[in-house]
Design brief:
Blueprint: H1 2-12, H2 20-32, H3 38-102, H4 114-125, H5 133-172, H6 179-197, H7 203-242, H8 247-262, H9 267-317, H10 320-329, H11 332-336, E1 340-344, E2 350-354, H12 363-371, E3 376-379, E4 386-390, E5 393-398, E6 401-405, H13 409-420, H14 425-438, E7 442-446, E8 449-456, E9 459-464
């Protein structure tokens, strides 16, 4: 056994290889060795303990440093994870805010892409709340707003599509059978969804969705305006057919309805409404012309019958043969529009009217114009007054102060164009239409001369000096 132990000892501690000089030094040291005194021995023991304490302290410090290094390394990694999560979440949040700011009325919201959402959520899950509790709470709050945005986008877009569909119908036909019901359904849908939207945390998202209330209210108001204007247009058509109001009153009603149409926000529908109003106006004017023509013919007929009766009475009072000769020599034209006759106005003033164009040759041009409207031109001798007459009714006056009822505006335009020679018919017609539509007079002053066109109590008046 002893031999085995010696062999093991030799294997564990290899034999020292000493030269002669080393052996001699060791031998001398051993011969000169003296036992240590007790004080030296205690000193050696104290040194031994100090060494042990220093060793233990070193191990402790090393352990602390190791723990610190490991802790700092992990803290840096955690910070990197936090920064990455913060960047991804902030990028998605900024995109959300940008969508809310750039989406215009009528457009649909764009959601955050699923890939960005998943990446941001994954980064957030790796952040340790114990290391940065306040920071992670902030990131969680931002992420929740983004998730709510993506959850809300389909609902908001569904509402916007409904609004767009109704706007499209309004632009085509305001009287769609189901339109009023569709608007009612839309309002109910909006009310229901707004209750959900009000619980959202993001201020920008709430503000954006709050605009839907205004849009739906505007839509309903527009629909109600369309209905009211359409009723007014129908009233204009009825007035046109019945000819129950004067031209000036009708034009004022047309202007009122046209102003309401021009305030509509849906310009396409406004154009359709304006077309309906113009048709009603054209109908009124045409029927009025037809009525005036009918009236003129009736007046001509009455005047002719009156002249015939007068001739019959004269023939019974005088010589029958002579009277028959007079009747046969006069045509109906000459009887209705004699060469000269006298007329008494409403003020009791009697004046003479003549068609002797040999003495007033310019009257031929006026008479040609008058004939186009079934009338005749007469002038008062030794005066600057002249008139256009149907039967025994004056429908226009030509002088330094000329005038005609607005229903005879076309005759008036022709007469004044012929009189002034200053304007073409198209130019003067545009001036007349402007005065009729605006109600404001047209004035031109040139040195000591000038002109004034106005509309007073349904009568067009043209002054020149």
């Amino acid at each position: 056994m002893k031999k085995v132990n010696e062999e093991n000892f030799k294997q564990e501690l290899p034999q020292l290889q000493l030269n002669e000089s080393a052996k001699e030094r060791i031998h001398t040291t051993l011969l000169n060795h003296q036992p240590s005194s007790p004080s030296k021995k205690n000193l050696w023991q104290r040194g031994k303990w100090s060494s042990l304490v220093a060793t233990a302290l070193g191990i402790f410090v090393f352990s602390l440093l190791t723990v610190y290094i490991i802790s700092e390394t992990e803290r840096n990694r955690e910070h990197e994870r936090y920064v990455m999560a913060q960047e991804e979440i902030q990028t998605a949040y900024d995109e959300m805010e940008g969508n809310l700011q750039s989406t215009e009325e009528g457009q649909l919201l764009v959601p955050i892409a699923d890939s960005k959402m998943k990446s941001a959520q994954s980064s957030l899950s790796k952040v340790d709340a114990s290391e940065n509790e306040k920071g992670k709470k902030k990131l969680i709050s931002l992420m929740r707003e983004i998730e709510m945005y993506n959850h809300t986008v389909p609902q908001a877009n569904e509402l916007q599509n409904h609004i767009n569909d109704i706007n499209k119908i309004l632009s085509q036909s305001v009287f769609d059978e189901d339109l009023e019901e569709s608007i009612s359904v839309l309002k109910d849908e909006m009310t229901r969804k707004m209750k959900t939207f009000d619980r959202l945390e993001n201020a920008s998202l709430k503000a954006f969705l709050g605009k839907y209330t205004d849009r739906v209210n505007t839509l309903e108001n527009e629909f109600n305006k369309y209905m009211e204007i359409q009723e007014e247009v129908q009233d204009l058509n009825k007035l046109a057919e019945e000819q129950s109001v004067g031209a000036q009153d009708f034009d004022q009603r047309v202007e009122k309805v046209m102003n309401q149409v021009q305030r509509l926000s849906n310009k396409q529908m406004a154009v359709l409404m304006e077309d309906e109003i113009n048709k009603a106006k054209a109908k009124y004017q045409q029927l009025r012309v037809d009525a005036e023509e009918k009236k003129r013919k009736e007046e001509e007929k009455i005047a002719y019958e009156t002249a015939s009766n007068s001739n019959e009475m004269n023939s019974s009072a005088g010589s029958k043969d002579k009277d028959e000769e007079n009747v046969n020599s006069n045509s109906p034209e000459e009887e209705l529009y004699p060469l000269e006759f006298t007329m008494t106005d409403s003020n009791g003033f009697t004046f003479k009217l003549s068609r002797d164009f040999d003495k007033y040759q310019k009257g031929k041009g006026y008479d040609e114009i008058a004939r186009r409207y079934g009338a005749r031109f007469y002038y008062t001798p030794h005066s600057d007054m002249s008139h256009v007459i149907i039967g025994r009714k004056i429908i226009a006056t030509v002088s330094l102060v000329s005038g005609a009822p607005v229903e005879y505006k076309d005759l008036f335009i022709d007469l004044m164009t012929y009189q002034s020679k200053k304007y073409t018919r198209e130019q003067f017609a545009a001036i007349v239409e402007g005065v009729i539509e605006s109600g404001e007079p047209y004035t031109v002053e040139e040195g000591n001369g000038g002109e004034l066109l106005s509309l007073e109590n349904g009568v067009l008046r043209y002054d020149s000096w």
